[in-house]
Amino acid sequence: MNNTDLLLLLEQKIQYLYNHSNIHKDQQIKAKFDRTLFSESFETFGFYINEIEETLSRLKLLKNDEKEQYQFYCQKLVSQCSVLNEAIYRSSSSSNKKQQVRSRKMNTSKREKLIKEINQLPPRERLEKYYEALNSLNQKIVEEEIMLYQASTLEEKQICSEKIKITQQRKCKCLEAIELLEEYLAFRKGLDE
């Protein structure tokens, strides 16, 4: 491969990194880099792209007889792209985990708010909501049992079994609430007669 082809390939690698990173130029990359690759750590994506383009510019200025320097800058450029790509991947997977935790917290608070609203309903309406919840839980158990049946690894089967166990516990609480509310309504009906 001649120098022109190699430069074209390296430019494509940089362009690919830039286009497929799903990150803004002003977004900070929270990573510590080797000083031989980047002059600073914990800088923005744009800062690192500029340094990569600077390495490419130096590479383009070299003459054909400067093979050792040419090889050095080629390796540096490939390493810069690789470590930056890896840092972006780590950063995005970390933010995905944080987003999942936030989402779970929001779902929990929504569920708690819904439960509070249901508990403020008159007894008959509340009983209807409890039966809707029971039907939903029964459906969820069936879906989870299908997933358990389709699971291929032991780990997947354990996860599915745990989900079924948790849903069945919720179903038991729902049945207890229904029974208690039906007893209360029967008692009130007896008083009214």
Automatic annotation (TrEMBL):
Pfam families linked to this entry: PriC
Lineage top rank: taxon: Bacteria
InterPro entries named in the record: PriC (IPR010890), PriC_sf (IPR038338)
UniProt protein name: Restart primosome assembly protein PriC
Organism: Bisgaardia hudsonensis
